[in-house]
Structure formats: structure tokens, C-alpha cells
Amino acid sequence: MTDVTNGEYDAFLEALAEGEGYYLVCENEHGLLPPRRACPHCGDRDLAVRDLPESGEIVTHTTVFVPTPQFEDDAPYVTAVVDFDGVRLTGVVRDIAQEDVAIGDRVTATVGSKETTDEQTIVFRPTE
Amino acid sequence: MTSFGSHPDRTGRDMFAEAGLAALEDAGVSAADVDELFYGNFVGTLSEGQGHQGPLMAEALGTTAPSRRIESACASSGLAVHDAVRAIRSGEADVVVAGGMERMTNMGTAGATKGLAGAADDLYEVRAGVTFPGAYALMARAYFDEYGGSHEDLAHIAVKNHDNALVNDHAHLQQEITVEDALGAPEIASPFTLYDSCPISDGASALVLTSPEYANEHDLEASVAITGAGHGGDTMALHDRQSLSKTPATREAAEEAYDDAGVDPSDIAIAEVHDCFTIAEVLALEALGLYSHGEAIGAARRGETRRDGELPVNLSGGLKAKGHPVGATGAAQVAAIATLLDGTHPRADAVDDDATIGVAQNAGGTVASATVHVLEVMD
Fold first, then answer.
1. Which residues of B belong to the active site?
2. Does the predicted model carry a pTM greater than 0.90?
């Protein structure tokens, strides 16, 4: 599946990899990731682009021991949801010992390859 | 329903035929009288390479009545029942079969894990390593953070549901477990171990639903009726929700179903809820209004939801022990409540004699879709 491209989502990942992450926000301040043409919370279609904040806070996490085939060589790995003050992202946590990952940890978002495939995924690393 | 379990060599059409023909026989309705089939299935195009399963499954029942396959991940046959109720109420149909089938064990654990992950958002979640257990683990940890609770509380839910399934010969797992077994089992996605998770199962379920008029005209023995049906929705990705520890799709479906039936949560005597993972039972009981937020986590530990408690939950064994052939689950839950209320379920002895109202809750993915049905004993 590595030859499949996903339009605006891949463009978002490329920007995130360059340190120029962004998100979409509707007139009611609902933060969203591309691709979106309408806000699922309020139906607003006037979505503005905003810079992704430098760092965010882990709101929940899990260490996955039984993966899907596309993460076979990555397991065990930590997946987390991170709040970037306006938008939340889901990604893989690296460079923190798995047993030390905690809700409230501050992380930055970037992009990295998996061990299993070349597919790119959102990666969270601890702030300096 | 068929027995739920590991039947890798059985075709989907044969499993659905077994469940559907038994339902028709039990109801005393001939296939020729079936107006429509509402059939739930999730990964049939992956596991059997078979699309267009509606007509195939109608054929298996001995009819070419119009049919459709309904896919709403793990809520597929809950939604089939919901839509079947609508079809009857609209006057379009007098007799419908609603049910579902899933064949999964032939895909292997990795294949089934990939198939199940398809219930989550592919771009936002699956690419970030979210598995089906992983998604519920994210919700469990958020719940603990917000309300407290522990993995041990969850283990009591697993122990309860395994215990309930011991007399259910249709259950996938008839195995007594202890809290220590659950806590010490191999890790799947922290904080979950193997016993927080339902098994990967094959199986089929089917219900025959008729209009009250048809039942009267044909002298059918129909002592239990679906009096309320509700359907709710939410965003696919967990990170797009306001709260990771609440499931508003179930709340929405429950309010609609209770309103439809004219009942309150306090009227409900028994519940079958979607415990694909132990935390899901907690989230369901709170969204159904049977517990306040933060209170259901201790319900099994305190004994309240055990079969000798005030509100027995998942007397069938739940998805946890009865098994979870995804597309068959929702209709099987409704069948469990119906048979618990009419006294024919092997755990019916745990239902109080004066109990007349039960509820079944079915959830898709991480509850981006949910259905709730209220069943009542008819005078």
C-alpha cells in the first residue's frame, strides 16, 4: 500500500516533516486535520489554516503489543493522543522510555518512518 | 443464532442459513412470507472476498426477497435491527429477517486485527498505530485519568462475563477466570491484557420481526416486543471528540430509544451492552444513563451488575465471553434480551420474575455509531 497517496493528508505530513505543521480551524474554533471541507462539529465550511503550536500535551496513551501487519516490526510501540491547544493529533511516541510515558508530558510533533514499512506516520518526541 | 466460536472451515452463507432458518422455525413463519432481509456484516469482502452478500444470504434462507447488507462496523446488525423496525413501522413490511454474520478466524490474528482496525479512521488513527484494542485502551486511560479506577476494576468485568457464559452453550469461551488470571495475562495494549478483550469469533444471528397485526393474524407466540429503537453518531477519530471518556453516540441512541418506548433508565431490569473490551461496558452503562459518569467502573467489583446484583449486565456472557462475530453481535444481543425476558435463555433464572424491560446496546468502532433497543414483555 506504500504507493497509495492521500492528497491533502500527505501534503500535511510533508509540511509537518519540514517543521511547518498546520491545522484547519472553523469559525467556532474547532481544530481539524486535513482533508476537510466541512467541520463535523458545526458544519461550517469556512475553514482557515493555522500554524500548529510548537508543542502539545499527551492526553492519553497506550503501548501496543499486538499490532496490525503494517506495524509488525514496530511493536511494542506507544501511540498517544496529543492536545496542541486547539487541535489534537494521534501519533507514535518515540525517545521516551515506554514505561515513563505519562499523561501531561509535553511533546513536539514531527514525521517518521515505521520499522515495518516506508509509510510515514506522525511521531511525537519530548520537548528539549 | 449459531454457536459463536472458531469455525474457520464454515462458509458465511452456511452459518447465516443455520441462524436464519432456526429463527424462522422458532417464530413459525415461512420463508415465503419474508418481505425483506436486513443483514449486517463488516469484513466479508476481506474474509471471503464476497461482496453483495444481501441476496446471497436471502437465498440461504430459501427466498429471493429484497435484501441489503448493512455495514456499521461492530454495530452492523444492531443497525440492521433498527432499520428493520423502521421498515415495519412505516408499513412497508410485515415480516422481516434482521441479523448478521461474520467469518473472521480464517483471516488469522494479524488479518483480523487489520480488518478490525478498519473500524477506526485510516488516515488519522490506523496510520498512527491505533489498533482496535489500542483505541479502547486510549479511552480506558483517559477514563482513569478523569474519574479514577484501575485495571483491577476492569478485571472484575471480565470475570463476571466469563462466569455468565458458563451455562451458555452458544458462547465462544466457557472458561472460568479469576481476577488474578486477568491481571496476569499477556499484554495486548496497555492497560489491557488478553482478558480485557473479546475473542475473534465466527458466527451468525438472526431475528424474525413482524408487525403486531401479522403476529395476531397468524397466532404467533410473541411475548416480547421491541418497543424502542435509537441510533446515534459521533466522529470517527477519537482525537476529534470533546471527551475521550464518554460515548455520546450511545447516549443519543439511548435517549431516542427510551423516548420511543416511553421508559426511563430506572425501569430497566437487564442490559446486554457492547463489551468488546472491558472498559466498553463501563462507557456503555454510563451513556445508557444506568450509572452516572465515573460510577460504572466499580459496578462489577461491587457486585451490582453480576447476575445476583440489582442490574444484571451481559447475562449472555457479553462479547467478552459469548464472542464477537462482528456483524452478528447486535442482533444476538437483542435475541439474548428477548430470551432472557421470555424465560428461554439458559441464564433466565437470574432475571427477576417481575422484570419486564431490557435494553441492548451495540456500538461501531470506538462508538462512532451506536444503536440501542428497548424490549418489553407484552401482556
1. 74, 324
2. yes
